[in-house]
TrEMBL record:
This is Zinc metalloprotease. Pfam families: PDZ_6, Peptidase_M50. SMART domains: PDZ (SM00228). GO terms for molecular function: metallopeptidase activity.
Length: 453
C-alpha cells in the first residue's frame, strides 16, 4: 500500500507541475485554456476557475493535458480568435510548449536543493578491501582508503561527501563508457593520491549486484560475525554471532571485505576448500575449520559459509546552506540531464544496453522504497523522476513537447508551418516509437522482478 500511495502521489505532483507550466505561460500570453486535466478518461472531479478554465481529475492517472482554444481543433468565435493558441506569435507558442518541461526542471532543482538542506546520514566513503581482480583492486585501492573527490579527466575535481555520492559517480561514468578518477587519502586524511578506476571496461553493462562486485567498492567494516544461519556451513563449523575473525588460512583479516572475498574464493573448481579460521570469542582465541558450500551467483560458482559479517559502516551527516544547496540543485539537475541524453544516444547506436530503460513497475518500487526510507530519500526520488520527465518530454518526438518545438523551429527557419499531412505522418511515427519504448521499459521491469536480468 505504501508503494502504491507513494507512486500515485509522485505521479500526481509531477503531472500537475508539468501541466501547470503550460497553463501559466499560456495564460500569461493571453491564450484561453479550456481544460486543465490530471489523468485521462472518465472525469472524477471537476471545478471551473474564475478565468473559465475547467479543472478536472480523471480516472486514468498516467498523464495529463492542457487543452487550449485553437482554430485547428474546431471553429472559434471571431471575438475570441485573439485568444487562440494558433494565433499567438511563434515565440509565445514555443514558450508555452517549453514551459511544461521547464516547470519539471525547476521542480527538480528545488527538490534537490531541499534534500541538500535537510541533510542525510550516509556511509562515509571509507573503503573496505576490494575483491581480488575487481576494478578497485587493480586500481590499487586498499582497506581504509578514504575517497575525497572524483573527476572525469583527473583535472577538475568534485568533492565526495559520502559513499552514495561515490557510487553514483561510478555508475554515471560506467553508463557513459568512461573511466573515473578518484582522489584518495588514508582514513586520517593523509597521503593524498589519485587512482584511475577503469569503469569504461564495463560500458554497456546493466548496473547490478554482479557489476558492483566486479567494481569492488564497499564500505569498511570490522571482521565480526554478525549472524549465523541455522543449519548452515558456518553453524556446522561452530561460528557464533559476535566472533571476530583474526586469521583465515594464516592471513591477517583487516576488515569484513577481505573476509568476504576470502570465503567466496574458497573452492577449487567444483570442490569447496576447507578454511582454517582463528577467531576471538569473549577474549579468548579459538581455531575452527569450516567447509563452505558452493552456490551459483549470477552464473559464477562462489563459496558460502552462510554467515553475515561486518559492522555498520561509519556514517556522516551531510547538509548544506541555502545558497550552496541551490547551486548543488542546479548542478545535479544539469548533470542528470546531460547524462540521460548521452546514455540515450549510446543506446540508440548500440553502445549501451537498452536494459537501462526502466518502466512504471521499477519506478513504483523505487517510490515505495524511498518513501519508507524517509522524507529526504523520497524528495530525492521525486527530483530524479521530475528531471527524467523534463528530459523525456524534450526528446524530438512528435507526440512530445520536444516534437512540437521542432515544428516551431521549422516554422521559424522556413517562415511556414509544418503541413497537416506531415504532422499526421510524424504523429503516427512518434506514437509507434513511444509505444515501442514503453513496451521495452515494461519488459525490462518484468525481467528485473523475475530475476532474468
Amino acid at each position: 500500500m505504501t508503494t502504491l500511495i507513494a507512486f500515485l502521489a509522485a505521479l500526481a505532483l509531477l503531472i500537475a507541475v508539468h501541466e501547470w507550466g503550460h497553463y501559466r505561460v499560456a495564460r500569461a500570453c493571453g491564450v484561453r485554456v479550456l481544460r486543465f486535466s490530471i489523468g485521462f478518461g472518465r472525469v472524477l472531479w471537476r471545478r471551473v476557475g474564475r478565468d473559465g478554465t475547467e479543472f478536472t481529475l480523471s480516472a486514468l492517472p498516467l498523464g495529463g493535458y492542457v487543452r487550449m482554444l485553437d482554430e485547428r481543433d474546431g471553429p472559434v468565435p471571431p471575438q475570441e480568435r485573439g485568444q487562440a493558441f494558433n494565433q499567438r506569435p511563434l515565440r509565445q507558442r514555443a514558450a508555452i510548449v517549453a514551459a511544461g518541461p521547464a516547470a519539471n526542471w525547476i521542480l527538480a532543482i528545488v527538490l534537490f536543493a531541499l534534500v541538500s538542506m535537510l541533510g542525510t546520514e550516509a556511509p562515509k566513503a571509507l573503503l573496505g578491501t576490494p575483491p581480488a581482480g575487481s576494478l578497485a583492486d587493480r586500481a590499487g585501492l586498499h582497506a581504509g582508503d578514504w575517497v575525497r573527490a572524483v573527476s572525469d579527466d583527473g583535472q577538475q575535481w568534485q568533492d565526495i561527501a559520502s559513499l552514495p555520492d561515490l557510487l553514483a559517480a561510478v555508475v554515471r561514468a560506467q553508463s557513459l563508457g568512461e573511466a573515473v578518477h578518484l582522489s584518495v587519502t588514508d582514513a586520517q586524511g593523509h597521503g593524498a593520491r589519485s587512482v584511475r578506476l577503469a569503469t569504461d571496461q564495463f560500458a554497456g553493462r546493466v548496473p547490478d549486484a554482479r557489476m558492483a562486485q566486479d567494481v569492488g567498492l564497499s564500505p569498511w567494516a570490522q571482521p565480526l560475525v554478525r549472524q549465523v544461519a541455522a543449519g548452515g556451513a558456518g553453524a556446522a563449523a561452530g561460528l557464533q554471532a559476535g566472533d571476530r575473525v583474526l586469521l583465515i588460512d594464516g592471513q591477517v583479516v583487516p576488515d569484513a571485505g577481505f573476509l568476504r572475498d576470502a570465503i567466496r574464493r574458497a573452492h577449487d573448481g567444483e570442490q569447496p576448500r576447507t578454511l582454517t579460521l582463528r577467531i576471538e570469542r569473549a577474549g579468548q582465541a579459538l581455531e575452527l575449520s569450516a567447509l563452505p558450500r558452493l552456490v551459483n551467483e549470477a552464473g559464477h560458482r562462489v563459496a558460502r559459509l552462510e554467515i553475515g559479517v561486518g559492522t555498520p559502516p561509519e556514517r556522516v551527516f551531510v547538509s548544506y546552506g541555502l545558497g550552496e544547496s541551490l547551486w548543488r540543485g542546479v548542478e545535479q539537475s544539469w548533470d542528470m540531464a546531460t547524462t540521460t541524453v548521452r546514455l540515450l544516444g549510446r543506446m540508440l547506436v548500440g553502445e549501451a544496453s537498452v536494459k537501462n530503460l526502466s518502466g512504471p513497475l521499477t519506478i513504483a518500487d523505487y517510490a515505495g522504497q524511498s518513501a519508507q526510507a524517509g522524507l529526504a530519500p523520497y524528495l530525492d526520488f521525486l527530483a530524479k523522476i521530475s528531471m527524467s520527465l523534463a528530459v523525456l518530454n524534450l526528446l524530438p518526438l512528435p507526440m512530445l513537447d520536444g516534437g512540437h518545438l521542432m515544428y516551431h523551429l521549422f516554422e521559424g527557419l522556413t517562415g511556414r508551418p509544418v503541413s497537416e499531412w506531415w504532422q499526421q505522418q510524424l504523429q503516427r511515427a512518434g506514437a509507434l516509437i513511444l509505444l515501442l519504448m514503453m513496451a521495452l521499459a515494461l519488459s525490462n521491469d518484468v525481467a528485473r522482478f523475475a530475476g532474468w536480468h
